[in-house]
């Protein structure tokens, strides 16, 4: 190991600790590498069915002492019609893509030049909720892409959907489908009707402003489309059956 000699102003000198003399940027590089790898390590942990992940918004609510409502439920305790409705509303190609719906992304980019909610898949929304922040930006989207593809490699489609439905925000301080079903309809997620499932699904683009129990005229119109698509979803939802 090379010794670094430090000369003092009084003419004396000493051998510096090579670890302490290491440039600060090396530590910065190591820190950044850890930040990059940490989500993938957590995703490996999240494969385990008894692990119940929380979102960055849930952590923020805890840190700010606001608190939140969330009760984890396994996918088999969620009404299948809710799963189908969310998939048809949020990501109709969920079962066939690798985390990114490239065809939809190309359509969105060609229409307005910026990747928006219209190109956001369930894996992208899941990793955003788990590791990133809200708000539209190129930086966040750039981070979402590799994380969504990594999550799709690590997690099964069924586990991905289970995590998403248990961490997604459905209102101010309301996270996960069980808390949403109890809050809006006073019933468990396993007992949701097709219409209630559709109302919950169409609130997801803006859960703070949309109320599933008091749907606007526009929400009613869209929910009927989602309800019909969920009824006819068939093979599109086979990966979570």
Automatic annotation (TrEMBL):
Localization (cell): Cell inner membrane
Pathway(s): Cell wall biogenesis; peptidoglycan biosynthesis
Superkingdom of this protein's organism: Bacteria
Keywords associated with the record: Cell inner membrane, Cell membrane, Cell shape, Cell wall biogenesis/degradation, Glycosyltransferase, Membrane, Peptidoglycan synthesis, Transferase, Transmembrane, Transmembrane helix
Membrane spanning residue stretches: 32-50
Reactions it catalyzes: [GlcNAc-(1->4)-Mur2Ac(oyl-L-Ala-gamma-D-Glu-L-Lys-D-Ala-D-Ala)](n)-di-trans,octa-cis-undecaprenyl diphosphate + beta-D-GlcNAc-(1->4)-Mur2Ac(oyl-L-Ala-gamma-D-Glu-L-Lys-D-Ala-D-Ala)-di-trans,octa-cis-undecaprenyl diphosphate = [GlcNAc-(1->4)-Mur2Ac(oyl-L-Ala-gamma-D-Glu-L-Lys-D-Ala-D-Ala)](n+1)-di-trans,octa-cis-undecaprenyl diphosphate + di-trans,octa-cis-undecaprenyl diphosphate + H(+)
Gene Ontology CC entries for this record: peptidoglycan-based cell wall; plasma membrane
Primary localisation category: membrane
Any single biological process term in GO: peptidoglycan biosynthetic process
Pfam families, A to Z: Transgly
InterPro entries the UniProt entry points to: Glyco_trans_51 (IPR001264), Lysozyme-like_dom_sf (IPR023346), PBP_transglycosylase (IPR036950), Pep_trsgly (IPR011812)
Recorded GO MF terms: pentosyltransferase activity; peptidoglycan glycosyltransferase activity
Entry's EC annotation: 2.4.99.28
Limits of the Glycosyl transferase family domain: 66-217
Membrane topology: Single-pass membrane protein
NCBIfam families with a match to the protein in the record: mono_pep_trsgly
Functional note: Peptidoglycan polymerase that catalyzes glycan chain elongation from lipid-linked precursors.
Family of the protein in this entry: Belongs to the glycosyltransferase 51 family.
PANTHER family per the UniProt record, alphabetical: BIOSYNTHETIC PEPTIDOGLYCAN TRANSGLYCOSYLASE (PTHR30400:SF0), MONOFUNCTIONAL BIOSYNTHETIC PEPTIDOGLYCAN TRANSGLYCOSYLASE (PTHR30400)
Annotated protein name in UniProt: Biosynthetic peptidoglycan transglycosylase
Organism: Pseudochrobactrum asaccharolyticum
């Amino acid at each position: 190991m090379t010794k670094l000699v430090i000369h003092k102003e009084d003419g004396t000198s000493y051998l510096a600790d090579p670890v302490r003399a290491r440039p600060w940027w090396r530590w910065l590089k190591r820190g950044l590498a850890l930040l990059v790898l940490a989500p993938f390590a957590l995703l490996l942990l999240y494969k385990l069915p008894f692990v119940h992940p929380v979102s960055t918004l849930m952590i923020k609510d805890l840190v700010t002492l606001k608190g939140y409502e969330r009760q984890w439920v396994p996918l088999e305790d969620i009404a299948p019609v809710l799963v189908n409705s969310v998939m048809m509303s949020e990501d109709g190609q969920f079962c066939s893509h690798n985390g990114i719906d490239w065809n939809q992304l190309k359509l969105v980019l060609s229409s307005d030049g910026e990747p928006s909610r219209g190109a956001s898949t369930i894996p992208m929304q899941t990793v955003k909720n788990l590791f990133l922040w809200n708000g539209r930006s190129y930086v966040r989207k750039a981070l979402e892409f590799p994380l969504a593809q990594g999550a799709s490699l690590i997690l099964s489609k069924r586990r991905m959907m289970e995590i998403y439905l248990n961490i997604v925000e459905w209102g101010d301080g309301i996270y996960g489908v069980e808390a949403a079903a109890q809050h809006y309809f006073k019933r468990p997620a396993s007992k949701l009707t097709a219409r209630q499932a559709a109302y919950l699904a169409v609130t997801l683009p803006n859960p703070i402003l949309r109320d599933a129990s008091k749907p606007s005229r526009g929400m009613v119109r869209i929910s009927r489309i989602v309800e019909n698509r969920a009824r006819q979803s068939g093979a599109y939802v086979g990966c979570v059956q």
